[in-house]
Predict the structure.
Amino acid sequence: MGSNKFIEQNSGNILTTEPSFNCFGCAIGNVKGLHLRFEEIEQKIQTSVCLGKDYESFPGVIHGGIVGTVLDEVMAQVAYRNNQCPAMTIGLRIRYIQPMKTGNHYIAKAEITSQEENVVKVSGQVESEEQGLISVADGTFVLLSAERLSSNKLNLPDTTVQYLMQFVSNTQEEEIL
Amino acid sequence: MTLVSNQLHSIIGEILGVDPESLQADTRVRSLPKADSMHILQIILKVEKIYGIEIPDTVTFNIETVGQFEQLIHTLLEQNQAKV
C-alpha cells in the first residue's frame, strides 16, 4: 500500500489544489463540487461526507448518482494514491441498500481488492453509525501511465493528456529525488 | 448436505444470528430475524467473495428460500466453469 510520505504529500493535495484541476468530487476550487478530502486509515482511503438539499432526489434523500459519485471518487483515490498514478474508472457496480439522508454524516471508504499491471480492482462502501451500511460498490480502474497516455487509446481530450502527462512526469521526478 | 449448502447455512446463520442447522431448503430467508435488505446484501457479498461469483442485483429483492439461493450459487459456479 502507499507510503505515508506520499499520502502526506498529496493530502494537501497536488491534484485538488492545482488551479486548473476542477474535479467535481475533490477539487477545492470547484464551487459546485463535493470538496471531498481523504485520509488513510488501516490501508483504506476514506472520506467523510454530509450533503445538503442541492444534492437531493426525493426530499430528504441524496440522489443515487451523487452517492455513486462519492463511491467512484474514493475508489479512484485509493487506486491513484497506491500507485502514484492517476486512475480512470472503466467499470462500476453500485448496490444501494438504504437512502443517504440529507444533512446526515457518512463515511465512504475504499480498498484495493486486486491489481493486474495497470488495471486495479477496488471495493468501496458508504456507511454511518446511525444507519449502518448505505451502499457498496465494486470498481475497475485503469492507471493512466505515461505509456498509456502517449498511445491515448482512451480517446482523452488532448488538453487532458497534456495535463496528465505533466502530472505523471512531475510525480516520477519526485520519486527519483 | 453439499459443501455449498453447509457454507451457505453458516453464512446465513452468522449474519442473521440463527442456528445454521435450523435452516432447511424451504426456509424463507426474509422470514428470518434480522433479514432486512442490509443483512441480505451482506450475505450476498460474502457469498460472492467466497465463490468468486457475481450475483445479480435482482436477487437482493427476489430471493425467497435458502434452497433457491443454493441453487443459484450452483448455477453461477457452473457458468463460471463453462467460461474457463
